[in-house]
Amino acid sequence: MSDSPTIHHHACIVIGGGSGGYAAARTARDHTDDVAIIDGADELGGLCILRGCMPSKTLIYSAEVLHLARMADRFGLDIPHAQVDMAKLHQRKRDTIGEFADYRNTQLHADRFTLYRSTARFVGPRRIQLADGRLLEGSKIILATGSRVNHPPVPGLDQVPVWTSRDILDLDEVPASVIVLGGGVVACELTQFLARIGTEVTQIQRSPHILKEASPEAATVVEAAFRKEGVRLFTDTRLESISQVDQEIHATFEHAGESITVTAAHLFNALGRSPNTEGLNLEAAGVALRPTGHIETDPEQRSSNPDIYAAGDVAGPHEIVHIAILQGEIAGHHACGKHGDPINYDHLTSIIFTDPQVACTGIPEAELRARGIKYLSEDYPFDDHGKSILMEAKSGYVKVHAARSTGLILGAECVGKDASELIHALSVAVTLGATVQDLLKVHWYHPTLSEIWTYPLEDIAARLAES
Description:
The protein is of the alpha/beta class. The chain is 32% helix and 24% strand. The longest helix has 23 residues, at 86-108.
């Protein structure tokens, strides 16, 4: 009779060592000494550090500096020659993310955790088998396995060489031409990066506008900027086929009643990401999925199995790093018997790092209308604002939504230069329950970009006084 296999028990097991997983493990460790982390990726650090936020924003910022240098004459400057050095840019990106990855590696390898460098699959409600056959059992388990590139059933897509965002972020030379499939956040941020370093870019989007996460008004501003910078942008399309002819990629799609074929040296699949649940064998754990493929969770991030939690991209509904961290912290606390406030998604802040940038906080205007909430809304353009005019940053606007009866700030939108920084003034207002009148007591310094918020605030205050 053979001996029973050894089962390693832990109070809390976290699967995934990215932003959400590390936040969950760190939080759980505040309550128990027995926390294990499982991560089988080639490199530790997670999507944000290695293949997402940090490398992309490093490259995007460098491309913005290059773009401004090429506009030197508008600023009364003479910069006769400005071009990208891809080898140096690539190395700068590696050096920048290397510092963050090294720090995360140190954290994950700390004696505070038991780290298993392996993949995992469930073989029971609380039992996990690693790739090498070892068995683990957790009193509580937190899933934070992130997301992966989506491969939709486009005819021919699986028959040609395809780049993903990882390939774009690892470029060490300027591609001659690229076709971008998709119009989401990643697609648009990297489309503009490619165009600014000198690549001929054709972008194909299915819906009438790019950036469906944003308002149509915001998307229209970004679309105009893209076309002005030379991006060949097609919206409201239907992809028909992808093929390769003599080392060249052909994409055929329907647009405005015509069948159009475009060609390029490379194809970038930016058609979104999917929750990374493949191989976990969630059926064995009794973990249910939503129709979107995300793990179904309650406000405490608990799945349909009360001993299993989920956080980050694998849980949704928003694939944003700070949300993954907040969800991880909630899961870590609740898994160890501590309770806290769930995330209020009506306070959500989201940002798109195109140029102009797009940033929103609070309840979007379309959602305010859908809920039947009575509100007042006012906007103001950057092309009539002193600081943005002298910065040659005249594209875009700010917009504020407030409750019609009280002036409570319900949401705001900013499309323009440094919108990612400007939005936080209104994010604080939304989260802390400030009113229009409260914000007008603030010392808004002149001349700054931030003071542009005073114009829609004053207009709403005037309308409130009249009612």
